[in-house]
Amino acid sequence: MDHKYQRVALNDGHFMPVLGFGTVVPEKVPMSEALKATKLAIDAGFRHIDSAYLYQVEEEVGLAIRSKIADGTVKREDMFYTTKLWPTFSRPELVRLSLELSLKKLQLDYVDLFIIHFPMPLQPGDQVVPRDENGKLLFETVDLCDTWEAMEKCKDAGLAKSIGVSNFNRRQLEMILNMPGLKHRPVCNQVECHPYLNQSKLLEFCKARDIVMVAYAALGSNTDKEWVNKNNPVLLEDPVLNSIAQKHRRTPAQVALRYQLQRGLLVLAKSFNEKRMQENFQVFDFQLTPEDMQTLDGLNRNIRYFEDSEFSPHPNYPFSDEE
Q1: For residue 68, what are the contacts with CB-CB under 8 A and spacing of at least 6?
Q2: Which of 316, 49, 15 has its CA nearest to residue 187?
Q3: DSSP assignment, residue 233?
Q4: Backbone angles phi and psi of 171, in degrees to 5
Q5: Are strands 80-85 and 266-269 parallel, antiparallel or unpaired?
Q6: For the chain, what percentages of helix, strand and coil (3-state, to nearest 5) are there?
Q7: What residues act catalytically?
Q8: Which residues cross the membrane (predicted)?
Q9: Among 87-91, 133-137, 260-264, which stretch is predicted with the lowest mean pLDDT?
Q10: 230 has a pLDDT exceeding 80
Q11: Is residue 52 over pLDDT 80?
């Protein structure tokens, strides 16, 4: 880790800040809040902004980044911006189009990281989530290796500095790593990861292949979201997590984030609350003990907040595998 800037070297030579700000807008919050929140996040110290075509806030997030460059808070090279290839753009001929659409909304010349959002292609078209007349998802069969080859071309064209994947299991990662003529390895795999789902086997696999694992839902998730499993316990209310937080005079969220950083993950924190945003960034000035880490490891229950079960009939559904 580059401790001065709290960033890590990727396998292609670029650097990625270890703590990122997630830009999914909370339910019942206007999309315009993404502009204000992203500005506040940059002011709080975040230099890694994670977004996606799906979130539909790239115009606001791009404006926030550009305004912070214009007022001298940051330079473009200080910022690390991630966007994602949505499954309706999985066909190789649509991959670059997807990235160009994001760049147009952002009004930026390049993104720092472009990742495949899900390994489960959907039929292309105007609908973000295409369905048939019965409400069933309209799946598509696309060879992920062909999609990856088109991702490589985006990197070669300079539209994305780095390329990676999200929500891939070990088998799907191996398929990319072993594809004939592979030019660029994925620099990262962004997955749900928190003390209730610590992904230790997948983490071990990624580390051995110099692929950075990035944790989303690192603080669990708010169960009022329609796609989140309602029966899951609330991570930040866990008594063990709270006990460790009290010991270090920290918030449970800070401990959950610090846990991932000490395991060697990069981590995304999402809050549109200014105070919590600032707290979430204050995770570099304390250390969890080996005993704390072991205790937190023991919380693993393989609980997944984001099961995306509607995708489960898809042959590429990644969460049926153990890792």
Answers
A1: 39, 42, 43, 74
A2: 15
A3: -
A4: -60, -40
A5: unpaired
A6: 40, 15, 45
A7: 55
A8: none
A9: 133-137
A10: no
A11: yes
Q: Is the pLDDT of residue 88 over 60?
A: yes
Would you list which residues are annotated within the binding site?
117
Beta strand 212-216 with 188-192 is parallel
- Number of folded domains in the chain? 1
Assigned domain for 323 exists? no
Coil, helix or strand for 267? Answer: strand
Q: Quick one: three-class SS letters along 197-225?
A: ECCHHHHHHHHHCCCEEEEECECECCCCC
Full-model pTM:
0.95
Tokens of 322: 């153990």
pLDDT at residue 47 greater than cutoff 90: yes
Q: Looking at the chain, which runs of residues are DSSP E strands?
A: 7-9, 15-17, 19-22, 48-50, 80-85, 111-116, 160-166, 188-192, 212-216, 266-269
Q: Measured in whole angstroms, how far is the alpha carbon of residue 51 from the centre of its chain? A: 8
> Is 1 contained in some domain?
no
Strands 7-9 and 15-17 come out as antiparallel
- Does 149 have pLDDT greater than 80? yes
Q: Which two tokens stand for residue 5?
A: 């800037």
2 within domain boundaries? no
Q: Count Cβ atoms within 10 A of the Cβ of residue 249 and give its class: 0-12 exposed, 13-18 middle, 19 or more buried.
A: exposed
Q: For residue 119, how many C-alpha atoms fall within 13 Å in the half-sphere facing its CB?
A: 28
Domain coverage including residue 66:
7-318
Q: Is the confidence at residue 64, as pLDDT, over 80?
A: yes
CATH code, domain carrying 128: 3.20.20.100
Q: Is residue 314 part of a domain?
A: yes
Answer whether 142's CB lies under 8 Å from 121's CB.
yes
